[in-house]
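[Archive record]
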Amino acid sequence: MNRQTYNKGMSSGVGDDAVKEATGSERIEPFIQEFRCYSARWLQRVMDVLEKGEATHLTYKMFCELFDELSQMNGSADDFQPRLHLFISAHLDQRVTLQDIAEFLVYSEKYAAELFKRRMGEPFSCYLKRLRLEKAKSLLMGGERSLAHIAEALGFQNAFAFSHFFKKAMGHSPAQFRRNIQSPSQLT
């Protein structure tokens, strides 16, 4: 869509009836007009400076941020946490990083880290560590898989790296954890 078409659509009132019908009130009309006015000016400035792809990406990012802020202000539950949990769980074996999260969310790494902490209640590194430990315990309780297979499933380079991680976090090795499954009082 070129600038003229966009600006024409912004000022022509296209969709006004749908907005009024959806809200059931004309009291928001001044806000709609104000938003259209400011967004048209903002988009014009963006298009004068950025390439079309960059402008599209920036506009998308801004609307996502606005929607995120609005959702939080309204206290509405969205699917952010389940979607993110599913993404991380699905990529756990690929050594998921904060950069992967940022790309998934279509945000900068810095903003993704801030958003993650705010929405998930803990920093990404802590969340990833907790998720890895939960899955490791589950896999160790199964008793069938080797430590090398578990390490691979959790995104570690080898069984040694996994064992070191597990022992540091839990206070005992994965092998000890597996042996002590029958007597949970020995586990911490």
Observations:
- The radius of gyration is 24 Å.
- The longest helix spans residues 52-74.
